[in-house]
Amino acid sequence: MFQMPKTPVDAYDILVIGHQRANIFFGEDPRNPPRGKPVTCTSTLIRGMDENQKPYALLIDPTTRESEQAFYFDLQRRTGLKPEAITHCFCTHEHFDHIEGFTYFPQARWLAPKANLFAVGAPLLIDKARLIGVENEFLPGVTAVALPGHTFGSHGVAFTYRGKRCLAAGDAVVSRHHFDRFQNNFEDDAVAARKTQQWIYDQFDIVIPGHDNLIVIR
Fold it and tell me: Cβ distance 161 to 8 under 8 Å?
């Protein structure tokens, strides 16, 4: 039985709203995508206090930008924080647009789902030796949640904010348009992906998708 973390987080911010090179629900052809590179995913920052009552800043899916300075600009304009304030980076799964931005934050601890640790290191975009496998509640108020389907090892991060059950879902939920239909893109297991989205719909109030702005369920 899934249990939400009991400790609420202090704040969350969407730093980058991810995009899709082509959205089939807009009538666009993936073979001739109207939007180019860099492909970006949604990057979310969660802030709270660690077990030693020191502040943490957890960056989920630090995405590819034109340069590290471009990401620092996004961070500063949304939060006022400088890059050295980021204490942890976490990737929901192994696709490059969700992990390449780790390199922008060399001072942070680099985290990945323990069950998916080998796959995350496969693209060789980052130093795999730095990755720390995590599971369950890995910081006070944030819990790694298995969300199989898009990839076999996909995970999200569940947290509570102002009484709302929230999930940074990665590409388990690609966009609002996909979620409305319980569909996904590029899934390893289409049946599992659909079941995962149905479970997310039942469990959470707010979902942050992998390539869109947040979705309010209830």
Answer: yes
Contact predicate 61/93, CB 8 Å: no
Q: What stretches of 80-210 show up as alpha helix (H) in DSSP? A: 117-121, 176-180, 190-203
Decide if pLDDT at 152 tops 70. yes
Q: Does domain 11-216 have CATH number 3.60.15.10?
A: yes
Place 1 in a pLDDT band, splitting at 50, 70 and 90. low
CA distance 23 to 210: 13
Q: Which is nearest to 58 in space by CA: 118, 4, 126, 11?
A: 11
pTM as predicted: 0.96
In contact, 60 and 157? CB cutoff 8 Å: yes
Going by C-alpha positions, the residue among 139, 91, 88 that lies closest to residue 113 is: 91
Q: What CA–CA distance (Å, rounded) separates 165 from 183?
A: 22
Identify the three-state secondary structure at position 88: strand
Task: Specify whether the CB–CB gap between 74 and 111 falls below 8 A.
Answer: no
CA distance 58 to 108: 9
- Asked whether residue 121 carries a pLDDT value surpassing 70, the answer given is yes
User: Whole-angstrom Cα distance, residue 16 to residue 3?
Assistant: 28
